[in-house]
Design brief:
There is one protein chain. By secondary structure, the chain is mostly helical. The protein has twelve helices and no strands. It has a single domain, classed as MetI-like fold. Helix content is 72%, strand content 0%. Helix 4 packs parallel to helix 7 and helix 4 crosses helix 10. The radius of gyration is 24 Å and the shape is elongated. The N and C termini lie far apart (51 Å).
């Protein structure tokens, strides 16, 4: 019979928690800008999760009597031309932006990892075919290819995620392929082959875990780009359809017609997009410095 000393376990847990907080404090002091980026990202995530709690109005509720109302105690960021509360639309728009950003980044990274692993590990004609397809996809800029895909698939949330994920595949696959080409020549891979381990098991158990550090950095850096691309697609009318709130569509509806009459319709969505992209870029740069030994001072 095993006797559990709860006091000892509690002390160990407390020591681990203290060590974790000290490590976080050390990293926060060394990477101040990265910590600021992390705080911004966490704030946006919490805002998206608690959107129904912190909003006083339905983002789709139309009140013609309060159209283009200036920011006040009732409507903190004013209202748009339909009388919809801008604060509520920006808060609920964070859900869409994060859903598109995280969804497209996860989908594009997953396919890119699979393509990069297969291409780099098998090499030969498989690598040749995969890289030529990657070259075709990488020849077009992210926004241009996303525009083509969205126009072909139609404006909807799943289609926007797919349209933005496809242009991310070449970038991820190239990074994973480069790491895989280096890893497949290392002694631990040769040792795994010598004991009869299958190629699939070698790739999944030994090669893939060693590519996670650059993948995490790349995915974090691409998250800001996907949010900006979604806003650009919505601004051009090919993103999230009405009446769902989207930061880019809010700018598209207000920029030309109401920028002088109601500047808050442009200022607040623009600030939301800028902060989201700024936060992810800061955190991505700090994460690169932490995980990449070549970047450490």
């Amino acid at each position: 019979m095993v006797t559990i000393n709860y006091d000892t376990e509690l002390r160990r847990a407390g020591a681990k928690a203290t060590h974790g907080w000290r490590l976080f404090a050390f990293l926060a002091q060394r990477h101040i800008l990265g910590t600021i980026g992390l705080v911004i990202m966490v704030a946006f995530v919490l805002t998206a999760i608690l959107a129904n709690v912190i909003c006083r109005y339905d983002p789709l509720q139309v009140e013609a009597a309060h159209a283009l109302a200036r920011p006040d105690m009732r409507h903190w960021m004013g209202t748009d031309s339909f009388g919809r509360d801008v604060w509520s639309r920006i808060v609920h728009g964070a859900r869409i932006s994060l859903a598109v950003g995280i969804g497209s980044t996860a989908l594009g990274a997953s396919i890119g990892v699979m393509v990069g692993l297969i291409s780099g590990y098998l090499s030969g004609w498989v690598d040749l075919v995969f890289q030529r397809v990657t070259d075709v996809l990488q020849a077009l800029p992210l926004l241009v290819l996303a525009l083509v895909m969205t126009a072909a698939l139609g404006p909807s949330l799943p289609n926007v995620i797919i349209a933005i994920a496809i242009p991310l595949i070449p970038t991820v696959s190239r990074v994973i392929r480069a790491n895989t080409l280096a890893l497949r020549e290392l002694p631990f891979v040769e040792a795994a082959k010598s004991i009869g381990m299958s190629e699939t098991r070698i790739v999944l158990r030994h090669v893939l875990p060693n590519t996670l550090a650059p993948l995490i950095v790349l995915a974090t850096a691409q998250l800001g780009s996907t949010i900006l691309t979604e806003a650009s697609l919505s601004f051009l009318g090919l993103g999230i359809p009405e009446p769902y709130p989207s930061w880019g569509r809010m700018l598209s509806e207000s920029a030309a017609e109401y920028v002088r009459v109601a500047p808050w319709l442009v200022i607040f969505p623009g600030l939301a997009i800028s902060l989201a992209v700024f936060g992810t870029n800061l955190f991505g740069d700090a994460l690169r410095d932490i995980l990449d030994p070549r970047q450490r001072g």
